[in-house]
TrEMBL record:
Record protein name field: Adenosylmethionine-8-amino-7-oxononanoate aminotransferase
Binding site for substrate: W54, Y152, K284, G317, R401
Family, per entry: Belongs to the class-III pyridoxal-phosphate-dependent aminotransferase family. BioA subfamily.
Catalytic activity: (8S)-8-amino-7-oxononanoate + S-adenosyl-L-methionine = S-adenosyl-4-methylsulfanyl-2-oxobutanoate + (7R,8S)-7,8-diammoniononanoate
EC number: 2.6.1.62
Pathways per UniProt: Cofactor biosynthesis; biotin biosynthesis; 7,8-diaminononanoate from 8-amino-7-oxononanoate (SAM route): step 1/1
Lineage top rank: taxon: Bacteria
Residues the entry annotates as binding pyridoxal 5'-phosphate: G119, S120, D255, P318, T319
Amino acid sequence: MSLIQRDRARLWHPYAPASPSLPLWEVEAANGVRLRLRSEDGTRHEVVDAMSSWWSAIHGYRHPVLDAAGKRQLDDFSHVMFGGLTHAPAVELAERLVDMAPSAPGRSRLDRVFLADSGSVSVEVALKLAVQFQTASGHPRRQRFLSIRGGYHGDTFAAMGVCDPVDGMHAAFPGLLAGNVFAPRPPAAASATPETVQAWAAELQATAAAHSGELAALIVEPVLQGAGGMYPYPAECLTALRQVADRYGLLLIFDEIATGFGRTGELFAAGHAGVVPDIMCVGKALTGGYLTLAAMLCTDEIASTVSGGQAGALLHGPTFMGNPLACAVANASLSIIDGGGWQTDVARIGAGLASGLAPARGLESVADVRTVGAVGVIELHDPVDVTAVTAAAIRHGVWVRPFRNLVYTMPPYISTAADIEQITAGMTAAVAEVHQRGPERSGVPA
């Protein structure tokens, strides 16, 4: 029995059925930006990873700096409990994150860090913290959250409750999710005008005003909604979010799990508007894709208020909180980012994606092509045939993982111009082969 057959007999995969016919490819090796895949029939393919392993492997695979950091920590110890104990990798990581976090004159710094297992868990912690803060501040009725349509914040229950309640991936649990409040989605960045942004901001404020006595916080993905549709919106909306939160006594939570560490062209997406949130969640690229780790940052005022409340503590504590191995690799990853080369890389990749994906606009099946930072998106009129597009892209030497009606890429920052050219050409060719052709091939079966 092949490895793929053994997998199908025992394992679940993300957002997939437990099926004996689930399309899978075995990874035999990963190095730099390339994966060596083996299909079920034994065929081998070398592909450029256009996904950075779901947006996390920003430095590529087998990076010597990250490898060395992990090996050094393994020689000391791989894990100790964080209850009552501490260690150098965790302390260093907290200090680095605080130093890197968004800041602005007149706003409190994000100077307290809670280390979590995953992005979803960091969002859970942020939501818990907001409720505990409001209760400790004398507002125990503030138990709900204000979010915006189209958002995605994770798969755990509180996180699901602030995802889009209608079009989101978690609409299957309507009776179990908290009844939160949702404002309209901001206008799309490409078509927004000062008037549409102002109109959206007015509706956001009206929604907050109508529910202010019951809202603990406002949570959004800044500038780019990820799994909700790879949807960029104007940075000016972040200013409106900050103003509304301040006006109605809400904490402002920025979910930077997908956007953090340079992906949109700023170190954190908040930087596009110079806005500082009260709470920020980071994850994914935090360890360069090596190990699962996330963090929640907040102001000292919030931490002190919660610590002085009736509970006397933030009521969360994962078993693997502050895992030394993950923290050590995260520190190495942040050292690479501190070098500053990511800014040139992201700008270069963004330009390559914009030019390389432009021909996809000529395909009749394509509704839009857009880029933001090191993110490139081909949006189709209809849902993507995920299996067929994935297989076609592999034949063109590219690994992608489409969803909904999107074929998109978030390549590693070390991708060369040739890698980006291969990614964009492969994505465009895969869409052309599977989903309708250009005008010259209109009506030809897929």
